[in-house]
Amino acid sequence: MHIEINARKREGQGTGASRRLRHASRVPGIVYGGGKPAQPLDLDHKELYFCLKNEAFHSSILSLNVEDARESVLLRDFQLHPYKQQVLHVDFQRVAANQKVHLNVPLHFINAEIAPGVKLGGGMVSHLLTEVEVVCLPGSLPEFIEVDLGALEVGHTVHLSELKLPAGVELAALIRGEDQGVVNILTVRGGADASGEEAPAA
Fold first, then answer.
1. Residues 109 and 73 in one domain
2. Half-sphere exposure of 80 (CA within 13 A, CB side)
3. Residue 158 domain-assigned (yes or no)
4. Tens-digit pLDDT profile for residues 35-71
5. Is residue 198 situated within a structural domain?
6. In angstroms, rounded to a whole number, what is the distance separating the alpha carbons of residues 76 and 31?
7. Which of 3, 49, 128, 173 pairs as cysteine with 178 (C-beta 3.0–4.6 A)?
């Protein structure tokens, strides 16, 4: 998915300047990295707020348009007001096509309703992770990773090493030798076991 976000170069610095921007429905931000100096930015609050509600905005290479220049960036951080629907600050990092990036991408779970552990065993799906850190070149970055539960039995767990990854994508945890559980199916008290018989009460 190609996502663009527009920004202007920000001249004023400090708390007072940031407060004035927010009063004008603008958001202070910064873009850094890529061997270039950090550039303070300001962005339209409404545009940024709705972009942040899009899952893909958090796990995609973004096209940042700063006046007459366009750069490929990642969203690295943002701050929200503790109780208002207001974005207080946003950070972007420049990326190069030939340099690998580390980014958390969401997991999308499919076929839970037909998993034997749910349909026959009466179990309950338990999500141990909802996102994973991937390592890849920007051009290979997936928006999400799919986890198929269609064959999962009660008491069984899908681990990171069992996930189907797009070409050129690695998992940071596996690189470190950590094969964590991603999702499993738990036995529900009083539910049926894997044979379809009613489980005895404890």
1. no
2. 9
3. yes
4. 899 999 999 999 999 999 999 999 999 999 998 899 9
5. no
6. 9
7. 173
Q: In what order do the strands lie in the sheet with 101-110?
A: 145-148, 101-110, 131-136, 170-171
CATH number, domain of 145, equals: 2.170.120.20
Q: Which tokens sit at 64?
A: 């940042």
Range of the domain at 132: 101-186
Determine contact, residues 29/89, Cβ cutoff 8 Å.
Answer: yes
Domain boundary among 94, 127, 156: 94
> Which parts of 5-163 fold into alpha helices (H)?
14-23, 45-52, 116-119
- Looking at the DSSP bridge assignments, the partners of residue 29 are 41, 90
Assigned token pair, 124: 């309950």
103-112: pLDDT as tens digits:
999 999 999 9
3-state secondary structure of 150: coil
Specify the 3-state DSSP secondary structure of 110: strand
* C-alpha span between 89 and 81 (Å, rounded): 9
Number of structural domains (the chain) is 2
Helix (H) or strand (E) holding 74: strand 69-80
